[in-house]
Write a structure and sequence with these properties.
By secondary structure, this protein is mostly helical. The chain has one helix at 2-59. The model has no long low-confidence stretch (mean pLDDT 94).
């Protein structure tokens, strides 16, 4: 009977561990989703900022090349 009791204990511990890992996995999936959304948002903001900088650069006057003095 001792080996059967040991086996039951081990199976119960494995089930508990499985539940813990399942919960941890779900939390990690939620974090990945949140971080992916944050990354996408930051990329979008970066692209918008680049577009604004490019537009500002286009508005700058172009300097004529300076002539060399002898």
């Amino acid at each position: 009977m001792a080996s059967l009791t040991d086996l039951i204990d081990r199976v119960e511990r494995l089930l508990l561990r499985h539940d813990e890992l399942t919960r941890t996995n779900e939390l990690l999936r939620e974090q990945v989703t949140a971080l992916t959304q944050e990354r996408d948002s930051l990329r979008s903001r970066l692209n918008a900022a680049r577009a604004r900088v490019d537009a500002l650069l286009e508005r700058l006057p172009v300097e004529a090349p300076k002539e060399e003095q002898p």
